[in-house]
Amino acid sequence: MIKVSTLTALSTIVLMSSAYAAGFHLREQSSAAQGNAFAGATAGAENNSYAYFNVAGLTRQKGTQLNLGASYIAPKASARNVRNAKGERDADVQNVVHAAVSPNGTVSYQINDKAYAGIALNVPFGMITKYDRDWVGSDHGITSDVKTVEVTPMFAYKATDKLSLGAGLQIQYLWAHLTNSAKKEAYTNYVQADGHSIGLGYQIGALYEFTDSTRAGIAYRSEVKNKIKGKLKSEGSYAPGAYGTYFDSILNQRIKVDLTTPAMLSLGIYHDINDRWAVMAEYQRVFWSSFQELEFVSRENNNLPGMPYISRVDEKWRDTNFYAIGTSYMLDEQWKLRLGLAYDQSAVRMQHRTPRVPDSDRIWYSAGLGYQYSEKLSFDAGFTYISAHDATLDTELTGNKGNHVTARYENSVKTFTFSMNYKF
């Protein structure tokens, strides 16, 4: 019976990895684009930060430019009507998801009239969720801390007066720290996993300028395959004798797991109505369905008898759609007002939702201001309020063999972002 608890702990940790990729893509990579809820981000190319969405847009950035920005992301998730396996009411859980700062920066350089180069630093995925150790769903997750940093060298070429093409190499570093409990009868063991990896991917894009007022873009960011290596260990076992010995022999070892962040296909359009008004729209398809299963394998050839892995979890995430519309208005020669509205579909269905990521469909409301301080220096600021649908959790449906828990999550996010763009 103790083996079941051990497998539960391992499976829960694996579930974290899948959950992180099933709803925590950080779009906040451009303060200017965020003001429009990322509508037209693939076609806008208003400064070089838009290269994250479409590298071909670098051909609109003349000379040498530097963009530096950061986003303060303040999510709010509360678990209500929490109940255990007996249906007994447990305490509500507040502040499940924690705030974080996501930096970004891009440097671009015009080589000649047709060729442009750049390099970008982004944080495309990340999350932090924390529960108390003694909460009723601790078997399914206590701490979940995942960070990625991506460096992308880029190149763009103006093939014709109207068509620009671009490509970039994604170099992605991923780090994860995860904890949960493994309970059996009167014994509780706390499990901790830490790991990291470096993966490679690519991005390509095209920008077509129909007229000086209208342009459209298409871009593709490939999946990145991460081969995570790390350690799995028990963190202060309370199980004496043979129970503690069994936990230690299974849990205290080096592990590896393959994790793929999803590919993305984006289409955008931008149109200047006149000297003051502009409108834009965006569609993105995120291929979360590349996550179908994860295997947790020992690097010490110490898997369970008869199994080539420590644990395997079937994932059934779905591809998702993101839709956005926006508008911009020049208040005067220096100030620009931006507005945007978006609908973002969740990859996590109810039968796969876990306490680590209580994700659901959401609506984005965005606003922003751009300020042209001088010919060389400009600033952008944006604010987004994300209203998420309530998310129902029933861990019995996920196939996780930890303690059964049900809850209803109320989720929202506030994001504040600011950037500076300088033309040398």
Record keyword descriptors for this entry.
424 residues; mainly beta; 20 strands; disordered N terminus
Q: Mind explaining what this structure looks like?
A:
- The structure is a single chain.
- This protein has about 425 residues and is mostly beta strands.
- About 10% of the residues lie in helices and about 55% in strands.
- The protein has four helices and 20 strands.
- The protein has helices spanning about 1-20, 30-35, 40-45, 240-250, and strands spanning about 65-85, 100-110, 115-120, 125-130, 145-160, 165-185, 185-210, 215-220, 225-235, 255-260, 265-270, 275-285, 295-300, 310-315, 320-330, 335-345, 360-370, 375-390, 390-395, 405-424.
- A hairpin with a 4-residue loop joins strand 7 (about 185-210) and strand 8.
- A 14-stranded antiparallel beta barrel has the order 1-2-3-5-6-7-8-11-12-15-16-17-18-20.
- Mean pLDDT is about 80; it is low at about 1-20.
- The chain starts with a helix and ends with a strand.
- The radius of gyration is 23 Å and the shape is globular.
